[in-house]
Amino acid sequence: MRRKTSQRSAIEHVFRQQDRAMGIDEILSYGRELVPSLNQATVYRYLKLLLEKGRVKQISHPSLGTLYELAGKTHHHHFHCHACNRLFNLPGCALNEKKAAPEGFVVEDHEVFLFGVCPACAGA
After folding, report:
1. Taking the CB of residue 27, how many other CB atoms lie within 10 A of it?
2. Using one digit for the tens of pLDDT, what is the confidence trace for 88-105?
């Protein structure tokens, strides 16, 4: 059994606190606010373990690369703000997979990203 460390607790806290998909650098930055000695290798190792246990989900973003978010959420999509470079969760799914894919194709999963400017950056 692996022991619970302050670094691991910090990484888990970051996911709960932010509640959105994040990249390694962002997880590391938020985590260092809690545990200054947190390093990139620890984040990578613990994310690998969390992925194996099914506690986080990996997302491939077209421009941000590999991102991670807590698993177990209902299916949703993401909005990428070009101004602040953050990714926001969008509730639900407006895509009908059966109608979107050509006949004969079997859809196993999908991910939709919307791009633009979030309300905070737009000055709303």
Report:
1. 24
2. 999 888 788 878 889 899
pTM: 0.82
Tell me which of 3.50.50.60, 3.90.850.10, 1.10.10.10, 1.20.1250.20 is the CATH number of domain 6-70: 1.10.10.10
Q: Give the count of beta carbons closer than 10 Å to the beta carbon of residue 33.
A: 12
Asked if residues 16 and 70 have their Cβ atoms less than 8 Å apart, the reply is yes
CA distance 14 to 67: 14
pLDDT, tens digit (0-9, with 9 covering 90-100), for 33-69: 999 999 999 999 999 999 999 999 999 999 999 999 9
Of 87, 92, 91, 83, the closest CA to residue 113 belongs to 87
DSSP class of 2: P
